[in-house]
């Protein structure tokens, strides 16, 4: 499998720890055939130390293509080994995490968003990763870290990494990361979005590809970002918390494919086969609760959603299969909801990228010390 076999990553689902696992990606692919899917971030050390148990961390079904493996770390040797160990799993791209603000990652772990402060190392890391794989490589980062949040500093990072490595694709979360004093959740809302930084990068680095991330919640807004020039758009929590409405329109509205007309009942029938096939695959894990977790948002804002979740809580106590779980809980959902194709797309915010060209920062000027990286 190679990335060239698939449609471009105009829409991708963000890597989210504890969320974009194999179960969620299976559901996402049943809803959308063309969205690019990302794994949760896997630490390079985990891959290296679990080399005799890799299926648990790296295996996925062929249907999940196109799929990107995101890795994190700050040790070049482990990054090289991890990439090499992942090769037999045939991911379509390897992405390096330079954006996670979690204290475990950017604090004690000294990687994630903290690496934006060391672009020379990131360039070296990307060279090492690229040297150990035949698929494209990319970086996911913020627009800055703490007080290092000027547009010029962001450009310095992009310039150094792309000059020192084969990296030509950057996914830009359009908020800076604050590593002291606020939580990862607050890091997704408190630092202001600066889409003008993202669009400035498009202007100043025309030979690179950029995917925008942050604050985009529906396909209408995805298309607005693309009309403004974004090469691709990454959506995170909106695609997890409302997968039917968000992912259900990706293929038709973004990629121009005919509407599949698939219903939630048909999706759940297929998911049941998958779910029962993986229960207890790794000892006692996964449990019914693990496999069902991504489904708990499938009926977002629909009649019966509240009752379905209450029945689910009760069913987790005694159901030993996905089949029995569905039999016990899906009676809460009306047939009209189960058997209807996805409704019209949600309307997006009209002003999200309004007049973005007039807001762009001053063009990047390469400073003398940066020329050393050329």
TrEMBL record:
Which Gene Ontology terms cover its molecular function? Answer: flavin adenine dinucleotide binding; tRNA binding; tRNA dihydrouridine synthase activity
Which PROSITE patterns does this chain map to? UPF0034 (PS01136)
Taxonomic superkingdom: Eukaryota
Q: Which UniProt keywords apply?
A: Flavoprotein, FMN, NADP, Nucleotide-binding, Oxidoreductase, RNA-binding, tRNA processing, tRNA-binding
InterPro entries registered for this protein in UniProt? Aldolase_TIM, DUS-like_FMN-bd, DUS_fam, DusA, tRNA_hU_synthase_CS
Q: Indicate the transmembrane segments per the record.
A: none
Stated role = Catalyzes the synthesis of dihydrouridine, a modified base found in the D-loop of most tRNAs.
Tell me which family the UniProt entry assigns to this protein.
Answer: Belongs to the dus family.
The molecule here is called tRNA-dihydrouridine synthase
